Amino acid sequence: MKKAVYPGSFDPITKGHLDIISRAYAIVDHLTVAILENPRKHSAFTIEERLEMIRRCTKDYPKVEVDYFSGLLIDYVKRKGISVIIKGLRAISDFEFEFQMALVNRKLNPDVETLFMMTNSKYSYLSSSIVKEVADFGGDFRKLVPKEVYQLIANKFPQNE
Ligand SMILES: Nc1ncnc2c1ncn2[C@@H]1O[C@H](COP(=O)(O)OP(=O)(O)OP(=O)(O)O)[C@@H](O)[C@H]1O
Ligand SMILES: [Mg+2]
User: Fold this and answer.
1) 0.90 cut: is pTM over it?
2) Pocket-testing residue among 10, 11, 20, ligand 1, by greatest number of atoms within 8 A of Cβ
3) Ordered per-residue pLDDT tens for the chain, 161 residues
4) Domains in the chain, please, with CATH?
5) Separation of 58 CA from ligand 1 center, angstroms?
6) Fewest CB within 10 angstroms: 28, 68, 96, 119, which?
7) Counting Cβ atoms within 10 Å, is residue 83 exposed (0-12), middle (13-18) or buried (19+)?
8) Of the residues 50, 87, 121, 128, which should be mutated to test ligand 1's pocket, given the most ligand atoms within 8 Å of the CB?
9) What distance, in Å, lies between the first and last C-alpha atoms of the chain?
10) At what angle do helices 92-108 and 73-80 cross, to 10 degrees?
11) Residue 50 and residue 134: Cα distance in Å, rounded?
C-alpha cells in the first residue's frame, strides 16, 4: 500500500492545493495532507484553523488524513511509514527550490520518492500569498478558494465582511 504525503503551509488552502489533492488522491492508496508548522514563517491562520479548513475541503475523501508536523519532512515521513512525497509545480520559480529539496531528501532517505504534479493551468497563478493579498485589499477572492472555506478566510479580513 503506497502512502503519500502532500506537505505545505496551506495558509490558507486554495483551489490550486485542492486540485493537487484530488489528482494525487486518484493515484495513491492513502494521502496525508500535512501542514508544516514553521516558527520562522509568520502565518495568518493558526494550525487549528488550517487543519479545520483542509478537513472541510476533503470531507468527501475517506483516504485523506489531515495532520501537521514540525522539523524535517523526511523525519515525519519515516515516523508515519510514508514512501512518497507529492509536490505541486507552478512555474520555473517553484522548480529551483523544489529540485534542491527533492535531492536533499533523497540523500537523507533514498527509500522516499518525490513526485511532482504539474499545476492545472487554471490555477497556475494561484498561491496562498495571492489570496491573502487580494483579501487584505478588500478584493473578491471567492473564485480563488474552495467554497467550504471562503467565509472562514473572509472573517480574518474585516474589509471583506
Ligand atoms: N496553484 C498551484 N498549483 C500547483 N501546485 C501548487 C499551487 N499552489 C501551491 N502548490 C504547491 O502546493 C505545495 C504547498 O504550497 P504552499 O503551502 O507553500 O502554498 P503556496 O500557495 O505556495 O503558499 P505561499 O504563497 O505561502 O508560498 C507546494 O508543493 C506548492 O508548489
Ligand atoms: Mg509556496
Assistant:
1) yes
2) 20
3) 689 999 999 999 999 999 999 999 999 999 999 999 988 889 999 999 999 999 999 999 999 999 999 999 999 999 999 999 999 999 888 899 999 999 999 999 999 999 999 999 999 999 999 999 999 999 999 999 999 999 999 999 987 65
4) 3-122 (3.40.50.620)
5) 17
6) 96
7) middle
8) 128
9) 45
10) 60
11) 19
Contact 89/60 with Cβ under 8 angstroms? no
- Grid coordinates representing 55 are 478537513
Q: Which ligand is nearest to the CA of 7?
A: 1
Nearest 10 degrees: Cα torsion 48, 53, 57, 62: 10
The grid coordinates of residue 62 equal 475517506
